Amino acid sequence: MAQPQHPFDLYEIDSLFNEEQLAIRDVVRDFVNDRIKPHVGQWFEDGELPARELAKEMGSMGLLGMHLEGYGCAGTDATSYGLACLELEAGDSGLRSLVSVQGSLAMFAIWKWGSEEQKQEWLPRMAAGDALGCFGLTESDAGSNPSEMRTNAKRDGDDWILNGSKMWITNGNIADVAVVWAHTDQGIQGFVVPTNTPGFKANLVKHKMSLRASVTSELVFDNVRLPASAVMPGVQSLRGPLTCLSEARYGIVWGVVGAARDCIETAVDYTLTRKQFDRPLAAFQLTQQKLADMSIATGNAMLLAAHLGKLKDAHKIRPEQISVGKKNNARTALEVARESRSMLGGSGITLEYPIIRHMNNLESVYTYEGTNEIHTLVVGQALTGIAAYADYKA
Question: Which positions ≥6 away from 273 have C-beta within 8 Å?
């Protein structure tokens, strides 16, 4: 019997990255193996996550806003950030979501569009994990089309009065600051809202069967009075939040590969040790076909992520390319998780193994940060020049 190879050995994946990138990956992998994997099944079952404790630990490691420059951020390249997302999601999608929302949505929005005062006030604390952020864009009736948002802000002298609500907001109940997007007379604008502001309320979303080791909330704004300094001055259009979403989607392109890899590793280990008809399951042709197909699909997804990382590091990446990555890799990871689950039989539905947890989580990842259908239409528009998700006028 030949020595089994890791699925990524088929592609010599490590050869794609430099020593610094691999060192960052290994630090995050060790953290996930030591600190997350032994406990995450219980966190998932309990519907809890020690988010503040973990944020402090990851802040001390430089993982929060790690791809941003200045203000206490690590300033790593995009590929290193991607590898970190991969290892975090190999632990759990909820963990990667915590880091992604903190760094690629809340922190990036302030870093990209905020005032110098806002940056100085929030970014160093958020990078250290001393303050947590959330990102308020999606609403109950405005998901794929955020221009339909009902949240609004109106001037009252020098102040602003914010009213409305946001839904499916990661970190909402534990956040110290919320980046909130609202309609104004000047267009869609972003506001930096401390969550202790009177009129701000976060309601925890319960009864989830996915992303259970993650905090999901509804945000409600009831005549929230904000000073003029709360406005992020850098943008007055949907370009603001959509740019932030591209940052977060980029992390997902990598993260889901981690979940898929963890499923394959589990399936390989299980089928090598589980015996039926006096031989390991791995000795059956159908098992090897499944493992081969899953490993090739995941390896190809990894190659796509690495390529997009190089484009991003060269400042050449385009939104439709990120859509290609999100569509392909989220779909691939979900298919791999489902196939891996079936290979474990009854054991595949228990939290003794990570697969059912990954599979349930990936159902959400497949939908959030742009549904599979929306990313399909973004790619379709790139190919045809026609925006099929909007009223078409020649």
Answer: 280
**pTM reported for the whole predicted model:** 0.93
Say if residues 95 and 80 touch (Cβ distance below 8 Å). Answer: no
Catalytic residue among 265, 352, 369, 373: 369
Element holding 248 (H helix, E strand)? helix 239-273
* pLDDT in single tens digits along all 394 residues of the chain: 667 788 899 899 999 999 999 999 999 999 999 999 999 999 999 999 999 999 999 999 999 999 999 999 999 999 999 999 999 999 999 999 999 999 999 999 999 999 999 999 999 999 999 999 999 999 888 778 888 889 999 999 999 999 999 999 999 999 999 999 999 998 999 999 999 999 999 999 999 999 999 999 999 999 999 999 999 999 888 888 889 889 999 999 999 999 999 999 999 999 999 998 999 999 999 999 999 999 999 999 999 999 999 999 999 999 999 999 999 999 999 999 999 999 999 999 999 999 999 999 999 999 988 889 999 999 999 999 998 876 544 4
| Structural domains in the chain, sorted by start | 7-128 (1.10.540.10), 133-230 (2.40.110.10), 239-384 (1.20.140.10)
CB 267 within 8 A of CB 348: no
Q: Which amino acid is at 28?
A: V
Neighbours of 337 (CB within 10 A): 30
- Check if 369 is active-site: yes
DSSP H or E segment with residue 179: strand 177-184
